[in-house]
Amino acid sequence: MTNVRIGGASWGRAAREWAPTLIASASLLLALGYLLKDRQYPLVVNGQRGAGLYPMLIGIFWAAGSAACVWEALRDRSRDAPAGVPLDWPDGAGWLRTAVVLASCAAYVALIGELGDLLASFLVLVVVMRAMGMREPVRLLLIAAVVATVAHLVFVTALNVPMPRGVLDLG
Amino acid sequence: MDPLEGLRYGLSVAVTPDNLLAALVGVFLGTAVGVLPGLSPPVVLAILLVPTADMRPETALIMMGAIYYGTQYGDSLSAILMGVPSEPASVVIGIDGFQLTKKGKAGWALSVAAVGAFIGGSVGLLCLLLLAVPAANVALAFGPPEFFVLTLAGFLVLSRLSSASFPKSLVSLAIGLVLMTIGTDPYEGHPRFTFGQVNLLYGVDLVPGVMGLVGLAEILYMAAKPLAIVKVPDVAFRDLWPPRQEWMKAVPASVRGAIIGFLAGMVPGPTTTISTFLSYRLEQRLSPQEVGHGAVQAVAGPKSADDASISGHLVPLLSLGLPFTATAAIIYASMLLHGITPGPLLIPQHPEIFWGLVAAMYIGNVALLILNLPLVALWTKMLQVPQRVLTPTLVLLILIGAYALRNSIFDVVVVVFTGVLGFVLRQAGYDRVIVILGMALGDLFESSFAQSLQMGNNSPLIFFTRPIPAVAWTVLVLVYVGPWLVRRITRRQLPAVPEIVPDPSA
Q1: Angle at which helices B351-372 and B17-34 cross, to 10°
Q2: Sign, Cα dihedral of B103, B108, B112, B117
Q3: Which residues are B192's β-sheet partners?
Q4: Cβ of B224: how many Cβ atoms within 10 Å?
């Protein structure tokens, strides 16, 4: 996170400080949700273990571990180097690049059926290369086209993977 | 089949043109991708899993084994030449390796690392040959309670040894196990946690899960924190061979490292890393004046331990069906992909797979030695690939690879979901290896739990009263209480151990 100062505090520091607590709390909530959902399944059927018994034990284990993580995160919050938390926290630009990579993955899932693998691959490459800092447009388009074509040849032609053909109808 | 006869049979399976080619291509691909900065061996295996999906099972496993060896060597290259290891196991290889590079002796470091890897691989495979069959024979007598308690013990030992805090390790394990409860209940056929999604009825498949948790998560991290390109020195072929007195130090260190690596590799946990540190510490004790300043034995020993631990990981995987490291879990996933279930029945039911794999690992080991030193100039060029080209290419490979598994967009969705999960866990300091092992062993864990309860008339006492579970519980108690007791007893008796810190002036 960039160190944008608001009200005397920096977002980067605050986010890094609270992230372990938030993640552990989210894990605890998910574990409780999982246990709640598990109540729909029987614990015992005809005197034998039912579909819900094993998930219930795992869910309790998950919730207990998460509660311990929340406690650990709160205990360590004010320390400079909380136990087990990596110090290599990305900056604002880093988070943005990660978001772009994820968005391009989501776009690939959404578009591959319509566009086909070659065009969808080309788009992913262009977007991610740009996000990673490649400036020259000709070089960017050329590398994206070459890599997408090589990937298509390897998977579709050499390994016979039936990738979606899409608008270009290349199979 | 005795080990020698088995090895002969394995060689007859492995030495076919297809399989030899698979071994050579595997070593080449593994090194080429493994040398790329930021890509650790599990990530490379996860990315390269897909091209092996359509091969014959033995050819695919031969290729996976060769990729594994190649990747391990590739990672050492970046540690030696740039001082930037991609995984913790290569950290100590890089300490003296990078010192040698700074002194203009990078070729020596690369040669002793290659020979150390060969010795480690050879000794490890020999031990695997001798131990895997007896271990599998013992495991044939195991029933569901034994498997349940051994798996649980493995998980708990792993959590104790993990770099993450203990509560985080438990949460990581729970997440892996929870992911595997999604889908149809194996006994009643009752859909669980599917939220009405037809795709989820079959559960979360291990392979896309691993590709996301290890592969995509690491790529997201590379996007978040790209590595700067470091100038890599050119290494001429004529500079590769160190003088005889250096070999006299490197070879015994490799043998010592191999034994440490194999023994440590059989224990659940990040034992590859531990074995390389142990080997380094041993060399430091033996040559305190040299190690830390660019000593060949401090490169050869840990590198040998690194490769020998691969065979150590294979003992519980092949004989018990219990993968206790991320790379073993990926090989496990690869076996499942080909309809083979590792475990005590693997050797009697699929001798061609077991012996073929052992022979092929050896072929991969030899191929590594033959191929890698002459191609050292190529590997140094690979280190210069800019991240703005590498990251997008890897994103694409993982997306296409996920689709190619079963021609299913759902698998791509699983990769993206588990990729985000892996990235969040990584940033928060949770151990993704434990998540993967929870996923890999989740089904076995649940089925052995259910069968044990049935055997014991629904009494949990069955997990404590049989001899093998009782031994496993005792070991667990020792692992958890032992270090605390030893610390209490020896607090004032042990001398301080020097830290592993390279000499900054060198």
Answers
A1: 60
A2: positive
A3: B183
A4: 22
Interface test with A, best of B165, B216, B415, B453 (most A CBs within 10 A): B165
Please give the structure tokens belonging to residue B218.
Answer: 């690491």
Give per-residue pLDDT as tens, B212-263. Answer: 988 899 889 889 888 766 667 777 777 778 888 999 999 999 999 999 999 8
Predicted pLDDT at B229: 63
CB atoms near residue B110 (< 10 Å): 27
Contacts of B5 (CB under 8 A, 6+ apart): none
CB-CB under 8 Å, A88 with B225: yes
Closest CA to B270 of B379, B433, B123: B433
Residue that is written with structure tokens 């008796």 in the block? B493
Candidates A56, A58, A118: best to mutate against B (most CBs of B within 10 A) is: A58
| Minimal-distance CA residue of chain B relative to A134 | B388
Cβ of B188 and A45 within 8 Å? yes
The helix (run of H) or strand (run of E) holding residue B364 is: helix B351-372
Cβ distance of B409 and A113 shorter than 8 Å? yes
CA distance B233 to chain A (A): 25
CA distance B473 to B152: 10
